[in-house]
Amino acid sequence: MGTHRIVHIALDEETILWRNADVEQERRVAIYDLIEENTFKPVRSAKRGVKGPYRLKLAVQDGRLAMDIADQEENQLETLLIGLARFRRPIREYFAICDSYYQAIRKATPAEIETIDMARRGIHNDAAELLVERLDGKVETDFATARRLFTLICVLHIKG
């Protein structure tokens, strides 16, 4: 595994106002999968010779995603701020389809569940592509990492 990767990720607990068991499970899985396999290279830090691995903290501040990036010894390297306006619709759509998916799991047929899951994956994939685009020039990452980061961005937006 390369050194340009995330080895620890935290979410700003003050940002997260509420989460149910389904959301908590999504958060745990996203963090586990992200730590197991990811590509994350902050461009400015890399230009200064920092090779990672990195510790990442995500928060929402004034309508922007704050990505606090530190080295393994917890020395702050940089903070990236990404506007979230373009993510409002994908987040709203993802919440709606996830709600339908969780309800379907409890009472729908396997074919209905599969249809909803395909729609859910499509929204998730589109949002991950948007995140890769928004990180361009700031962080070099792969699609799978962006997908998991989008899941965590959604967790930060749950209002209860």
Keyphrases for this structure?
160 residues, alpha+beta, four-stranded mixed β-sheet, two-stranded antiparallel sheet, 5 helices
**Count, helices:** 5
Structural class: alpha+beta
Radius of gyration: 16 Å
Q: Classify the beta-strand content into a percent band.
A: 15-25%
Low-confidence stretches: none
SSE string: EHEHEEEHHEH
Tell me the overall shape.
Answer: elongated
The level of helicity is: 40-55%
Query: What strand line-up does the widest sheet have?
Result: 1-3-4-5
The tally of beta strands, per DSSP, is: 6
Distance between the termini: 38 Å
Can you put this structure into words, describing what you see?
The chain has 160 residues and is of the alpha+beta class. Helix content is 51%, strand content 22%. It has five helices and six strands, in the order E-H-E-H-E-E-E-H-H-E-H. A hairpin with a 2-residue loop joins strand 3 and strand 4 (64-71). Helix 3 (88-107) packs antiparallel against helix 4 and helix 4 (110-135) crosses helix 5. The mean pLDDT is 90.
Which helices and strands appear, and what pairs or packs with what?
Layout: E1 6-11, H1 21-36, E2 40-42, H2 43-47, E3 54-61, E4 64-71, E5 76-83, H3 88-107, H4 110-135, E6 139-141, H5 143-156
Parallel strand pairs: 1-3
Antiparallel strand pairs: 2-6, 3-4, 4-5
Helix pairs in contact: 1-5, 3-4, 4-5
In short:
The chain has 160 residues and is of the alpha+beta class. 51% of the residues lie in helices and 22% in strands.
